[in-house]
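Quick note —
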Amino acid sequence: MKGETKVRTLSGCWEMVWRDDAPAGSVICAFDLPESYQRGDAMLEKGPLYITFPVWARGGLSEAQEDKRNVEKRLASIKKKLDAASEKMNETQNPIMKALHFREACQAHEERSFVYTEKAVSVPWDDEVESLNENLLLTTKGLVWSKGKSKNLFQGLGWGMSTTNDKVKLLGTALIK
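Predicted structure written out below.
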């Protein structure tokens, strides 16, 4: 796990992708590996390699962080209900009360399942972004991935440029230091 392997890349390029009215976009860096690299069980295969980092407008990130705080508060409140109902259920010997507390725990669990957390998980906190300029913030944790053996670095990314069936392979994460 310790040590370092230097990887030679060719044909580096990057692109910023941002949908209209979205609070965040992505910076996609693409490279071509002229040879395969292996270290332990990890392998980077010869061919195209991509690194993607989320990028945020400062205002969009602030709004998303507020939504994330609200989701976390809601989840904490539900957890309190679930913990209290579970504790009461475990403490009582009365089968009717045990059933009522079990029902309360089930309701809290169901309530938890309706809280949409997927979006909140992807929102970084201020210490997880670097400022690119007055209004643009780059998330310091990104994804490393590949997409088969395509010769064209951006071919087959779902933008209508290819009919290739290459599958995206998630290889790991990248950190900006």
